[in-house]
Give the backbone structure.
Amino acid sequence: MLFAQLFQGLTLALGLVLLVPKQLKYAVSVGILIVFIGLTAVEAVKVIFSGQVSESPLLFNLWSDQPPFLAIDSLSAFFVLLINITALSSLIYAGGRAKRYTNKLTAPELSLHYVCFLLLYLAMLLVTMVRDGLVFLMAWEVMSLASFILLIFDKGKAEVLKTGLRYLVYMHVGLLFIMIGFLVVQRETGGMSFVHLAQYFAQRPDLGLFLCFFVGFGIKASFMPLHTWAPETYQTAPIHVAVVMAGAMKKMSFYMLIRILACVNDQALEIGLLLVVVSLITGIAGIVQANSSVDIRRKLAYSSIEHAGIIGLGLGLGTIGMATGSKSLEILGYAGAILHSLNHALFKSLLFFGVGAILQQTATANIEKLGGLAKRMPHTSALFLLGSVAVCGLPPLNGFISEFLVYGGLFNTLQNPSMNKTVLVLGSMIGLLLIGGIALFTFSQMYGVAFLGSPRSAAVEAAKEVPFPILLAQYIPAALIVLIGVAPGLVMPFVFRIVATTFHLDIAAVPVPVLDLLPPISVISLVFALIFSVVYLLRHLQQKAVGVTTKETWGCGYTGAGARVQYTSTSFAANLVGFFKPLAQVQTVYKTMAEEEIFPTARTYQVQQVNRLERSINWAANGSVKFLKRGTVFQTGRVQHYVMYAFIFMLLIFFLSFFDLI
Amino acid sequence: MLGFALMLVVAFWFPGIILQTKAKMCGRKGAGFLQPWKDVWKLLRKGSVYSRTTTFVFQIAPTLYFSTVVCCMLLLPFGGGDGIFSFSGDIVFFAYLLGLGRFFMIIAALDTGSSFEGMGANREAFYGLLVEPAFFILLGSFAMFTGHTSFQGIYDHFAVNDYSAILVGILGTYLLIQITMIENSRMPVDDPTTHLELTMIHEVMVLDNSGFDLGLIQATSALKFALFGTLISNIFFDQSYPLWLNIVLFLSLQLAFAIVVGLLESFKARNKMSKNPQFILTLSSISILIFFAVLVLMTK
């Protein structure tokens, strides 16, 4: 009962960050974060283990009839823990950079940054814990504003400010759609709380309102074609902010989509199909564009878009299972989506931290200038390898477990085949396979070109291993990735219980014994590790006995090879990009040689990624701005004109109401 | 356990039979059919040379690749018995575990910093991603046909119906043979005997490996053949057969498969490299056709 009061009271502690001197601001922020993590995690774990919902009223009561309260049920508890893990590792990472920024920035700038970070964290927690539309909208808005301020951290550069403002506009367009959705609910059912939301879906056709919410939340979740804000935003954001945005903030829209899907009933099939189609397009197009990107942050941004597609696919399949009465598809689809949210937060944080380590040591994010970092940054490269294996969904790590659940749902649907269901299963399976295969391509490219081989520029030569906080920030998600991958039985019962309580299902009624799948995976992962260790030991003994020499890489007799003969990221991606040309949106700028050109002149060859979708959105936006600029004729700057405008407005209102027109 | 031992026995003479078949087709005497494993034994005792550019990835990749294939062998049943491990959905685990081996071979190739290995890695990654759908959809068709999602369940219930099982079995065998040729980097996608780098895929990817690692890689390719051969042979078993008949059937089917591989290698020319994606996608379309054939059979 005390939870909400404690939560509200501790929010005042944010003021402490403003009061302490520059040197202590980081430590105080970490302290406040840890206190909040302790408070919320304890409550969340209590809810998960006891299965009871925890409700406590907020202190301030601005609404006379229904006081807002903070409620944590099992779904909220799951996302609370997700937010806590992401925020903690992210702030620990920031500690590795804190000293440099403490010296560079003024005290107000630092305070603003840390306060906005904590506000973002608190707003995300509130989003998962409130059950009222209005408070939800306020928390959502605080989330967008706080992330905007965090985003424009490097505000000296004009590019950063422009990207931040575009991000703000996109987020507000999304907010507009969400607000319209809640206002429609208010108008039809008389209230904005989640209970009224469920009432609306019970009474009226679902699709229209769902579309409204889908666009609103889809912008933040970066479904295609609403994703165009994401690549530049993750490129310009500071790494710890990008981690919180990709890991936790994106999942907030999935959390709300799950809540909405739990209310949907009669048009669930159409909604599920829409989700599946949009998610498959998002997944495939997202990961293909990751290949053609050259900035490593941009690659990770597109990979996040791809994983949003995978989570959306799980949600869509679960909804279709709900609509068709296929219990196993419903449970496995939703469980896969929920677990993948957590898995994605973990491995995306790990990958972004690795990228941040590279940025810190080499000052470049251009993958074509990297290479050979594994020898210079051994911990980071080993952990990045772990993250890459996880992000491709390969066993024995956690990415495989969530994809395994979705595949399980798909295969189980094949048991009683009917034409429609099987076409859906076939399409989803091909889509998911392509996504997984292209992800393997992308991350072997990314890891191989950035970390392995020889250095491609002087920037890499001076790189060293990163300081301890950044390493610690990487080890935390890495440990969880390995834990969930090797011992999924620890997490899965809770995930299934969450699906059961949120969607009002009975786990025991599921025909396929899902929980029996998981111990064999753990056993075989351990057997795999055992076989590997035995063979490696034999190899080690043999090599110690016989001897090992080192030489240059074999070059077919050509001894002048340097770093330039290696495959670059673009050349590695060339055959895939050529195959998926419409999706990859790569433009080659090159003047081919004519046949008559006996003595060719000098040429340049440029391969660049163009985002045609974004270009058309920009074209539309610029066009409307040009049109709206005509309205500036009214901005004369003279108060007399403005008073006249107000007077005309009053006259208009008077006459319209006089004639009963409004 | 028996199946695992039999797979090892098959892997022992499989590459030798392929070499002998190819030699006989050319009118040569050919190397002895234990020669590939004599080479492996020699390599396992030889010293190694490592490139200075390589890191820990290059050290662990061949061992990891070998371990993934051995683990996959643990999942396959034999002639009505169980695999050593079996669980619902282990077909997904099987395919993704092979993907893990492929991932590590690709990054080990990029580790050398050589353009040859980079080329092999690039092609291997691309063709691997194109062949996955064919394999999965075929397994999906089997799962739909038999109503189970583990290898043991699929193969136990395969020979239930009569003519439809034979039809699906033959189509599945044809596709599996093609998929095996691609997964093991054989004709017509890749030629293991050419060492012209511009035309290689797998061979060029492992160019810098030597000694124990190279021995492991060659052993793994033999084991992979036995693995896929077991996938094919299991289609033709029946639970009612006595054990000795199943063993004889298994060994003769694997022998036939080895001879077929040798014949395909002798008589098929290698594809033009740019035509390979098209070829591999043809397999996916065949698997989709099989899928729909099974669907029609099941809904009748």
